[in-house]
Design brief:
Oligomer: single chain
Structural class: mainly beta
Order of helices and strands: EEEEEEEEEEE
Shape: elongated
Helix content: under 10%
Largest sheet: 7 strands, mixed
Number of strands: 11
Radius of gyration: 14 Å
Length: 121
């Protein structure tokens, strides 16, 4: 089995910072990539940032220059450092892992339960 768990969300004032963490665990052979997505009420889920096993990163235009995605391969963990937060960043942030499972080397997508980020004064 594969589990993906996020943490680090909370309430922050505009201009503030938060650091989200996401740990993948279970029967993992390798993690091809991990990423963060977010969904605000009444809106579709959108990509925020992704990072591959080779540390190639991709960011949504709306967060470039403010957010930084990184990973710790030894811990199977990905982070999202969010700076200069804006009210429009308010959403539930979901961690995604593109995993090749140890059993059968099956590739699959796994999602965390989400963590709430609220940016408000």
């Amino acid at each position: 089995q594969v589990q993906v768990v996020e943490s680090g969300g909370g309430l922050v004032q505009p201009g503030g910072s938060l650091r989200l963490s996401c740990a993948a665990s279970g029967s993992i052979f390798s993690i091809l990539g991990m990423g963060w997505y977010r969904q605000a009420p009444g809106k579709q889920r959108e990509l925020v940032a992704t990072i591959t096993s080779g540390d190639r990163t991709n960011y949504a235009d709306s967060v470039k220059g403010r957010f930084t995605i990184s990973r710790d391969n030894a811990k199977n963990t990905v982070y999202l450092q969010m700076n200069s937060l804006k009210p429009e960043d308010t959403a539930v942030y979901y961690c995604h892992a593109d995993v090749r499972q140890a059993m059968g080397l099956r590739r699959g997508d796994y999602w965390g339960q989400g963590t709430q980020v609220t940016v408000s004064s």
